[in-house]
Every structure is written in C-alpha cells, then in structure tokens.
Design brief:
Blueprint (H helix, E strand, L loop, with lengths): L4 H9 L6 E5 L6 H8 L6 E5 L3 H8 L3 H8 L4 E5 L7 H11 L4 E6 L2 H8 L7 E5 L5 H8 L1 H6 L1 H7 L3 H4 L5 H21 L4 H13 L7 H8 L3 H13 L3 E6 L12 E5 L2 H7 L12 H19 L5 E6 L5 E8 L2 E7 L11 H6 L2 E7 L4 H5 L1
Parallel strand pairs: 1-4, 1-5, 2-3, 3-4, 6-8, 10-11
Antiparallel strand pairs: 6-7, 8-9, 9-10
Length: 374
C-alpha cells in the first residue's frame, strides 16, 4: 500500500511531546494504513476502534483509573473513528492530562463531528492533521515524474483514492462503492437526513458546476430544497471531506465579484462517479473543468502537507474577466491560469496584472504541471 510519506514524517516528528495527535480524513483515504505503518515495529501500541460497541461502552463512564487499567503498559493508544464515542473530547483530555508518557492518537472521518467535540477540551493539547487521497507528489515519489505525467489522463478520470490507484481495471466499481459509502454510511447518519435523493441531486448539481460560480438559490431550485438547507448540506459535505469552497478575490476594482464562490471535489474520481461518466478525456466537454478540479485539489494537498500558509481564491469581474486561481502568501500575490491544451496558452489577464502587484503569473498545462504541484 502506498502511504503519504510527507504526512507520515510530519506526524512522526511530533510524537511523544505531551500532545495528542488527531488525524482527520474521509473514509478509505488510508488513515489506519498510515498509522499501522507508523507504528508497525512497536508492540506497545493499543488499538481501539470507535465503531465497536464494546469500545464505546468502555469510554462511557471512563475515569482516569479505569483508563489507566485498560492502557496498562502500552506507550501509544490509537483510537480509530473516535467520533463514534460519546463525549470523546473530554475522554481524550483525561488521557492526555492524567496518563503521562502515553502518546494518544485519534482518527476521524468527519471534521464536523470529531473537531467540534475535541476543539475546546483539547485546546493547546493536540496536533491536528488532515489526510487526503493520494497526491500527485506522492505518486511522483513512488514511481517517478515521467510515469505520473503519463498517467494524468487516468487520474483526471479516476482520482487518487488508494484502493483505486492499486486496483487498475476495477476503478469504476470501487469508486461507485466509495461514493455510496460517502452518501449513505456517514453523511445521512450524522444529520438524520430524511431525503437522500435530494442530497444526491445536490452533489450531482455541484459535479456539473465544477469550475463555475455557484448560487445557493439556483442549487436549491434544482434540488427541491430551500437555500438554507443547501448551505447546510454543503457545509456538511465540506466537513466530510467530499468538497471544498473557494472564495472570490477582491481588493480594488469596483466591478470585481466580491461574494462569489466556487466548489471543488477533493477527488476527481468521486466527482465522475456521481455523474456516472468515465468517458476518456478526448471525448469529454468537461475536460477543462476536470483539469481545473485536479490542479486546485492537488494544490490544497501541497499547501497542507508542507505547512504553507496561504489564502486561496479565484478572481472574476462583472464583465467576465477571470483568473482561475489566486494565491496570497505573506502579502505576495500569485496568479495561475489552467489550460489543458498546451498549444492554446493565452496571457494572464492584463487588467488584473495592472491592478495588483503580482509576484508570480503562470499558466499551468500538462507540460509544466510539476512546477505547480511539486
């Protein structure tokens, strides 16, 4: 199994420093695999699964004394799917504060549930990480840049979920199973959603609007929901690591769109599974949108794994001038245009260039993708 080496190294540096490690990420991104390899040579690790009823009962009336008896001689405690445990934040705080010399690691497939439950109890007591599906950079490290660039067309269709990557020929079956797991095992349970068909309709509508500005009112009309419910579902999908939002950049120009948003999927394969379209790139009208989603989601992984603190936006004006991606870091602005066809590379919008002091302007195509993602 391929594991994210960068994230693994980042976690390893912070072990046994008196703080809990919290690892968040969608199901099937490899959280358990990563931790298994991280602690593979350690016989002093206690593994607990929050999905198990007996583990939930164990923590129900837990005290520092009872937890100490359970932990015993173990030096590391891993609690998988910790969000399933009632009042988990207080229980993690109890272990961190009262049971010294034990490294606590908790994983969760929902930032909505786990982060909300642990943020206050574990303030100043945790390191938090997010695990994405595999990345372009990790696959380059695995088998080289040339091979991964050859596979870009494949990645645009099927994405980077670990099981998908290592099971060539079965990608569509696996992705359809994963998309069903997203919708019916986690999200519907968390909020008790009574109309799953409308949630699916919303996800499909978002799939078709990748790369375009989205309107909650228009989405509500298309899905038979009210705008507030659409906004709530989008927040929930974001906390479940299915999608993420990108806001609009606005500083000076009167005709800039100030409150617009775009929504992208963390994985191209999930997006394509939702609309049941795995046609080859050359046969698709949405290849530009697939390329844009791929690049922005991969850039998010790079920023997160390398601890790069930057604001991410798109830019558009009322008269349809646009830049695909803006990044602001330490007061410096970089602008990027994404073009699948390397033979048709326009210049970056001159209006934006003349209005802002832009440190870096780049057009990203399959020819130079490594400059943007590595």
């Amino acid at each position: 199994m391929i594991i994210p080496r960068i994230l693994s190294r980042n976690i390893q540096k912070l072990l046994h420093q008196g703080k809990a490690v919290v690892l968040l990420g969608a199901r099937q991104t490899g959280k358990t695999t990563l931790l298994s390899q991280l602690f593979e040579n350690r016989n002093n690790t206690l593994w607990l699964n929050g999905d198990d009823v007996d583990v939930q009962n164990l923590f129900h009336h837990a005290t520092s004394t009872s937890l100490q008896a359970v932990i015993g001689h173990y030096k590391t405690v891993v609690i998988d799917e910790a969000q399933r445990i009632e009042n988990i934040g207080l229980k993690l705080k109890l272990i961190t504060d009262q049971i010294k010399n034990v490294q606590l690691v908790a994983t969760g497939s929902s930032a909505f549930e786990l982060s909300n439950r642990i943020n206050e109890p574990l303030t100043g007591r945790k390191w938090e990480f997010q695990l994405f599906p595999l990345s372009f950079a990790e696959m380059v490290a695995h088998h080289g840049l040339l091979e991964e660039k050859r596979l870009i067309r494949h990645r645009l269709l099927y994405g980077y979920y670990p099981e998908v990557v290592v099971n060539q020929g079965n990608e569509q079956r696996i992705l359809r199973s994963l998309s069903d797991s997203y919708l019916y095992k986690d999200i519907l349970q968390w909020e008790g959603i009574q109309k799953p068909d409308r949630l699916l309709r919303l996800l499909q509508a978002l799939s078709f609007q990748v790369g375009n500005q989205v309107s909650y009112n228009e989405l509500a009309q298309a899905c038979g929901l009210d705008p507030k419910t659409v906004e709530k579902y989008i927040l929930l999908l974001e906390k479940a690591f299915v999608i993420f939002r990108l806001g609009s950049f606005s500083r000076n120009l009167r005709n800039e769109l100030k409150f617009s948003r775009k929504i992208y999927f963390y994985d191209n394969g999930i997006r394509n599974a939702l609309i049941f379209n795995f046609n080859q790139i050359e046969m698709r009208d949405d290849r530009g949108a697939l390329w844009e989603n791929f690049l922005i989601s991969e850039r998010m992984k790079k920023l997160h794994y390398h601890d790069i603190w930057a604001n991410s936006y798109f830019w558009r004006t009322k008269n349809q001038q646009e830049i695909d991606y803006i990044e602001e870091k330490d007061g410096n602005i970089s602008a990027f245009e994404f073009k699948w066809n390397a033979k048709k590379l326009p210049a970056i919008n001159p209006s934006f260039k003349s209005s802002y002091q832009v440190e870096n302007m780049q057009i990203v195509s399959p020819e130079n993708v490594e400059d943007f993602l590595l």
